[in-house]
Amino acid sequence: MSSENAEKNGDYFPPPESQGGWRVLADEGAVAATGGMDPAGLRQLRDFHLKSYGSHSWSIVVICRGWLVAEYCTFNVLKSTRFDIWSGTKSFTGTAWGLLLDDSRGSRTKRTLELDSPAYRYIPEGHPLTDERKKRISIRHLLCMTSGVPGNDATGGVAADPGSGEIEFALGLGPNRLGRMADRLAAEPGSAWDYSDAAFIHLALAFRNVAGRELSDYLRERVFDPTGIESVCWDVQGGSGKMGPHTNAHSGIHITARDLARFGYLMLSRGKWGAKQIVPEWWIDLCTKPSQSLNRHYGYTWWVNTEKGTRWDSSVPLDAFSLSGYRCNRCYIVPSLDLVAVRVGSGPEQWDEKEFVRQAVECARR
């Protein structure tokens, strides 16, 4: 966190919701003076969302300068309501890998795990290889969507055929529900960007085999418990005669808006929570910048705005980044504005994302 941001929020970190939770500014004068946000602009953001997406269930939380300055939801949503954030889960998976890589950096023994380590070295379930090019897939390729593992557009997703499983499909050992296979790579690793849930299933397997623990258990200990993220659960996939079960690395986190805002606030604080460095700063720096030249809007499991500010509206600061999931589940972090804006919900499938981000940014600038 910059010294300016530290001064604004006083190095504040909220206790868990069961112990009081976020500090809240309810008075509009305090929202403006202390929270640094425009109350009228926040009402406009709320009204726009209600008018445009009021037929769906959703919750919005805005944190500025360490204060909860706005919280809006539809009539059927409580503060404790969890939503499936779908592919927003990938940013949690990426965070776990950042921690695991940092653990390896700090090992007193010879370092064995690197971003450029061959992924299939840690996935014995995938041997023998269904495509010899797979031996060139690295952890880096999987995290930045350049592995060559066929993407969602080509395969129709990872939902498995009744006779197979999602993990088997990802490894190329069986078809998905559309009868399509992922046994052959769609491209040489590192040569093409392709959004692939199947690639992320590889990350769940490799993580379990390297760490000796499931992603969900590891993040519970290393991130969720230290930051007070209480209202969260994480789906598994596989089992019942199929490979697994293992933590679903590409989807399946169910979380409240308030607790997702904690995760965003951890990223805003450069991985720090209280006196403890939860996520290493080097990983924060790396994952929030373009991870490759093929799609410079994609970092390491985060969407970034550093490519000439072209990810969202032109008014959005270059340092903005976000996690993103199906049905318009988002967590936006803008360090230069000391801002975290969360939107979770059951839909719609498409929305005016640029307008939402623009309004939130404008409120913080007024």
How would you characterize this protein structure?
The protein is α+β, with helices and mostly antiparallel strands and 366 residues long. The chain folds into 2 domains: 3-86 and 249-365, Beta-lactamase (3-Layer(aba) Sandwich); 89-229, Beta-lactamase. The chain has helices spanning 3-9, 28-33, 39-53, 89-105, 139-143, 152-155, 166-170, 197-211, 215-227, 257-268, 281-287, 353-365, and strands at residues 58-64, 67-73, 83-84, 232-234, 236-237, 246-247, 253-255, 272-273, 276-277, 303-304, 321-325, 329-334, 339-345. It has a 6-stranded antiparallel β-sheet, with helices on both faces. Strands 3-7-4 form a 3-stranded antiparallel β-sheet. It is globular, with a radius of gyration of 20 Å. The two termini are 22 Å apart. Mean pLDDT is 95; it is low at 1-8.
Return the CATH topology of the largest domain: Beta-lactamase
Please tell me the total number of domains: 2
State the helical fraction: 25-40%
Query: Radius of gyration over alpha carbons?
Result: 20 Å
The beta-strand count equals: 13
Give the strand line-up of the largest sheet.
Answer: 2-1-13-12-11-10
CATH superfamily of the largest domain: DD-peptidase/beta-lactamase superfamily
CATH architecture of the largest domain: 3-Layer(aba) Sandwich
Q: Strand percentage, roughly?
A: 5-15%
H/E element string?
A: HHHEEEHHHHHHEEEEHEEHEEEEH
Under CATH at level 1, the class of the largest domain stands as Alpha Beta
SS element count, helices: 12
List the SSEs and their pairings.
Elements: H1 3-9, H2 28-33, H3 39-53, E1 58-64, E2 67-73, E3 83-84, H4 89-105, H5 139-143, H6 152-155, H7 166-170, H8 197-211, H9 215-227, E4 232-234, E5 236-237, E6 246-247, E7 253-255, H10 257-268, E8 272-273, E9 276-277, H11 281-287, E10 303-304, E11 321-325, E12 329-334, E13 339-345, H12 353-365
Antiparallel strand pairs: 1-2, 1-13, 3-7, 4-7, 5-6, 8-9, 10-11, 11-12, 12-13
Helix pairs in contact: 3-12, 4-8, 4-9
